[in-house]
Design goal:
The protein is built from two helices and six strands; from the N terminus they run αββββββα. It is an alpha+beta fold. Strands 3-2-1-6-5-4 form a six-stranded mixed beta sheet, with helices on one face.
């Protein structure tokens, strides 16, 4: 796995490696606003993730996910820490759970 110091560096590095789609999180899927691409948790895998902790501001905390669909589309999803369960389906929460170990 690569090492990045900031969210911006991670996004730039992933884009250089082909992760060019910008995904947004919805209740039960991730979507690209530029295309009709929508993926349910069963339709994608998280190939890498990078967790960033702000030095003094909790608003700076984020997770950058590198995502690949079953059909080879690659993109990124950026979320805050502790994804709120409100409005998000259980399958999506489980898929995006950052596992340590």
């Amino acid at each position: 796995m690569f090492a990045y110091d900031t969210v911006a560096e991670a996004l730039k590095g992933l884009k250089q490696r082909g992760y060019s789609i910008d995904f947004n999180l919805e209740a039960d899927k991730i979507c690209c606003t530029d295309t009709p691409l929508q993926l349910t948790p069963e339709e994608f895998e998280i190939t890498e993730f990078y967790r960033f902790e702000g030095p003094s501001d909790p608003a700076d905390e984020a997770v950058v996910y590198a995502i690949e669909s079953r059909h080879g589309e690659k993109g990124v999803l950026v979320t805050g820490f502790g994804i709120s369960a409100e409005g998000i389906g259980e399958a999506m929460i489980e898929k995006l759970a950052v596992r340590h170990g």
